[in-house]
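Document type: protein sequence-to-structure record

Subject area: structural biology

Format: plain text, a pair of labelled lines:
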Amino acid sequence: MSETPVRVLIADDDPLVREMVGASLEEAGFAVATACNGAEAIEKRRQDPGLDLIISDMNMPELDGLGVIRRLRADGDDIPIIILTGNNQISVAIQAINSGASDYLLKDENITDTAAHSVRKAVEKRQLQMQNARLLRELAKENERLGREKALAQKVQANILPRSLSFPGLDVACRYQPSDKIGGDFFDAWETEGRVHFLMGDVSGHSTSSALIMAVCTGLFQFLGRAHGDPQRIVATGNRMLCEMLQGSGMFLSLFYGVFDRASDCMAAVSAGHNPAFLCRPDGAQLIESTGPVLGWDSDDSWDAVRVPFAAGSWLVLYTDGLTEAKNAAGEDFGEGRLFAAARRPQEAAPMAERLFAEAGGHCAGKFLDDSAILILRRTS
């Protein structure tokens, strides 16, 4: 099946020019129609929207070439227009291009050779513009779809995280600060058989996959925590399951998992590549550093556990790196040092969480580049 020829309308009040240019274009495979002046060209264009291109003389009765361009462009018609002009009218031709013409042709002895080339170039340019416009429309639709998915993922993520936590003898506060990205921050706490389990995690990346793994982890570790009391066993078992899920994805997660045993007034904790936790007392403070690698890399990895007193008057601050990596205008991180210094000042859990976020937000002028989460547990009795 042969392609439909490109359809060209030649508008010129000189029949000889119409005939010469028309003959050369037909010989090159174009379909040609003619008009005697600009007004007729406008009318033929309106009657035949399937035209692909107009070649218009600059000087014509009733409506000149500039008038043709301006009239069509005012109507929202972006059909390519090539202006015919004499050697002494180059400045006028440039004016026509500035008004919306695609190109110009000189009325000289080479016009029959150059006309077909100029038409091909203008048509190819127009096709490229149409293709780009179509791709931009498709991109806009895809961005809109991704925006809806992102908003949904962020909403689901926020709904999964607990809004408040309460346990006898503990003052607990949690806060989550979403960024404009899809993150993988998560935290949770629950009590079973006299042991309060609590965790803070951060899945690598910013995607719906991160949000999905975050959702899986909240359920997975609560299930394991209700079945076992030892954080080393819980983390090692969770790691083996996550390694199967994340195999080949390049994703991983950091996790702090702690268990407060009411009977012994002690806390056992495992930190799998997570940010240092702050354990504070009225008379001092300490960091609980990472006790092993991140989760999801190697199913044979193992972790040490830290066991420390968690007596009345003590408080523990867990967080994700979105808080410490909040940057000021100079690109300087808020940092663990500033957060640690702020966390050491005694206060009830909820106002402390607000204050820590306020200090980090003041450092970065409220522009958090990553999701940020904080969980504070304070022994009251």
